[in-house]
Amino acid sequence: MLNNFVCVTCGVQYQESESPPHSCKICEDERQYVGWKGQRWTTLDEMKSQGYANVLQTMEPNLTSVRTIPDFGIGQRAFLVQTQHGNLLWDCVSYIDEKAIAAVRRLGGISAIAISHPHYYSTIVEWSESFDNAPIYVHSADRHWITRPSSNIMFWNEETVTPLSGLTLIRLGGHFPGGTVLFWPEGASGKGVVLSGDILQVVMDRRWVSFMYSYPNLIPLPQSTVEDMAGRMRRYGYDRLYGAFEGREILSQADEAVQRSARRYVQHLQATTPPITIQT
Fold it and tell me: Which residue of 62, 79, 190, 269 is most buried, as measured by CB atoms within 10 A?
């Protein structure tokens, strides 16, 4: 029997096969990891039998988060951005069922999908096919990470692209070469919103963000990359920034927080520490 197997550790779905893949290329990359119990696989049917569900939460007018409970894979949330020109699903969660589809349809459905980076590819093709083959925007710099090919995937090469009128995808790079954030100028009552995945990671002290090559393995980015990312973000005015995980958002002066965070990051990269003298 053919199945689209889903990696338990990262939540990314693979193309149809009779048996699970030997390994998950997303998890074997040094930015991610193979779970401590080894490579494990599941399917959407198995997840349904295990009691997974998606919870939708209104974050502000025309912005709804989608989160799977209990946590699965990396545990990220997706966002539905409602506009006059259709709705965009930003990033994705692995679990999808009829209840989730119906709930999203009540909000106007999905006209396009955009993904920040490969760790959140999850079941993007399932979501696309459930909403009239909505186009999936993935930066071409990351196309070799696609694990379930589909004609619905739209690879873009530019530094910015407009998936729906009034929404801009910005390639920042960093965590992945095609790392992308979404700029929504009408959000926050017209003050502007950025949805950042973890390309810009809102940290526990929510006055700040961070920039990393690998978050779980704590591999930093070089100074030049962080400065380039901050420079690209200076072109946009936004008051709020929503990160990938529940509660990780900056609700005011987010543009200043990103620039301040970049400066702090660079200062620590440049800092020198005096040698430690051990008394014997």
Answer: 79
Alpha helices per DSSP H over 191-246:
223-233
Structure tokens at 199: 């390309």
Burial 141-164 (b: 16+ CB within 10 A, else e): bbeebbbbeeebbeebeeeebebb
Burial class (CB in 10 A: 0-12, 13-18, 19+), 17: exposed
User: Which residue carries 């962080």 as its tokens?
Assistant: 226
pLDDT digits (tens, 9 = 90+) for 177-226: 999 999 999 999 999 999 999 999 999 999 999 999 999 999 999 999 99
For CA atoms 194, 181, 218, 225, the dihedral sign is negative
Is residue 107 classed exposed, middle or buried when 0-12, 13-18 and 19+ CB atoms within 10 A define those classes? middle
pLDDT at residue 274 in the model:
64
Domain ranges of the chain: 6-270
CATH class of the domain defined by 6-270: alpha beta
Two tokens, residue 244: 């990938």
Write out the two tokens for 96.
Answer: 């999808």
Q: In this predicted model, what pLDDT tens digit does every residue of 10-24 receive, in sequence order?
A: 999 999 999 999 999
Question: Quick one: which of 239, 248, 264 has its CA closest to 206?
Answer: 248
pLDDT digits (tens, 9 = 90+) for 87-113: 999 999 999 999 999 999 999 999 999
The average pLDDT across 140-165 equals 98
- Beta strands of the chain (E only): which ranges? 6-7, 41-42, 53-60, 63-69, 78-83, 86-90, 112-114, 136-139, 153-156, 160-161, 168-171, 180-184, 193-197, 201-202, 209-210, 212-214, 219-220, 240-243, 249-250
